[in-house]
Write a structure and sequence with these properties.
Blueprint (H helix, E strand, L loop, with lengths): L7 H20 L11 H13 L3 E8 L4 E8 L10 E5 L11 H4 L2 H5 L5 E5 L22 H17 L5 E6 L1 H12 L4 E7 L8 H13 L5 H4 L5 H5 L13 E7 L18 H32 L4 E5 L5 H20 L1
Parallel strand pairs: 3-4, 3-5, 5-6, 6-7, 7-8
Antiparallel strand pairs: 1-2, 2-4
Helix pairs in contact: 1-7, 1-10
GO molecular function, one term: hydrolase activity
Keywords: Hydrolase
Organism: Gordonia westfalica
């Protein structure tokens, strides 16, 4: 799919979309939109996996943040030999509430026959999983790039007898973060998958998207990468730094914001709730339209750099059923990268 040029019409569209995202996100503080049904069944499956040793809850200390970080792990199906690891990040809430992979998707069943360890940090809300320039009065000290790329992997490799081969994937806020992390630590990850993330931080759209997440939680975005629009923001912009993704397996997806196959009243996430239906179509549609523009820009940039990548677009909103689908669609690529 081609990307429109940088004309004034496109800039106006981007800013309008981003402004709507900001105002709607402030009206609805949670940007994790669809709480899918069947949570009790998922809890039971997770409990069984824990009892059988297929799932683990760990606590890993971060020296850089001076805090303990909860980590949930799905262990590779066959541990007779060391296996690779996929780091799978949650969205804006960081997994600190019920908007996370285990409550919202079939991740436990999905991983049951996979010979890859899946590691999910259950913290990091509204942080963009990055190293903040300053301690924030509301969100505290955030050094997530340091934790995820330096502190956590050695602990995971030792605990799981992993083979040191890694990939990373994430949704929404973390869809931005995983690209930036793969660019920051290019030798750490063989593959990266971004689902419904805005791949920009140093554009009008990117800055406003960051502001919607961080500002909506009470944080100050000037504490992330220094002065807004300054060199720190450019240094963390996945599109600007896309050349650092060369040589990796890359999968990026976004809905268009238009109603898709999960956006109907009978879907599990909606279950006939007209108010929820309107909320997902309105808020989820607008946010996904914004990520769609960002994703098109990343695609254009990678094509210009002649860096191969898989992009997947389909009608759909910013909600968990689509991310569950995209994990499954991207898995063959991730698995090949991790086992090559």
């Amino acid at each position: 799919m081609s990307v429109a040029g940088g004309g004034s019409h496109r800039r106006v569209v981007q800013v309008v979309v981003a402004l709507v995202v900001v105002f709607v996100s402030l009206a609805f503080p949670s940007t994790s939109l669809a709480d899918t049904g069947g949570e009790s069944e998922r809890e039971e499956r997770l409990a069984r996996a824990m009892a059988e040793g297929r799932a683990l809850d760990l606590t890993v200390h971060s020296s850089s943040m001076n805090r303990d970080v909860p980590i949930r792990v799905l262990v590779a199906a066959d541990t007779s030999v060391p296996r690779p690891t996929l780091y799978l990040l949650n969205g804006s809430g960081g997994g600190e509430g019920d908007a996370h992979w285990f409550a919202q998707t079939d991740i436990v069943d999905f991983a049951a026959d996979k010979n890859v360890n899946i590691v999910v940090p259950m913290s990091g809300g509204y942080s963009y999983y990055t190293d903040w320039a300053k301690v924030d009065p509301v969100l505290g000290r955030n050094k997530w790039t340091t934790f995820l790329t330096r502190e956590l992997p050695p602990v995971i490799d030792a605990k799981l007898n992993a083979n040191g081969v890694n990939g990373i994937a994430g949704i929404s806020m973390a869809g931005t973060s995983v690209l930036a992390l793969a660019e920051t630590a290019p030798d750490l990850y063989r593959g990266v998958a971004s689902y419904s993330g805005c791949a920009e931080t140093n554009t009008e759209l990117g800055r406003l998207a960051v502001g919607a997440v961080v500002g909506g939680s009470g944080g100050d975005i000037a504490n992330i990468w220094g002065p807004i629009g300054g060199p720190g923001w450019r240094a963390h912009d996945p599109v600007v730094n896309a050349y650092k993704l060369r040589g990796k397996a890359i999968y990026v997806s976004s809905g268009t914001g238009l109603p898709g196959r999960h956006d109907h009243l009978s879907d599990e996430a909606i279950d006939g709730d007209v108010v929820e239906y309107a909320r997902i179509l309105g808020l989820g549609g607008v946010i996904e339209a914004a990520t769609y523009y960002c994703t098109l820009n990343l695609q254009s940039r990678l094509q210009g750099l002649r860096i191969p990548a898989t992009f997947d677009y389909e009608p759909g909103t910013h909600s968990w059923p689509y991310w569950e689908d995209q994990l499954a669609k991207s898995w063959p690529m991730l698995e090949r990268a991790l086992n090559r």
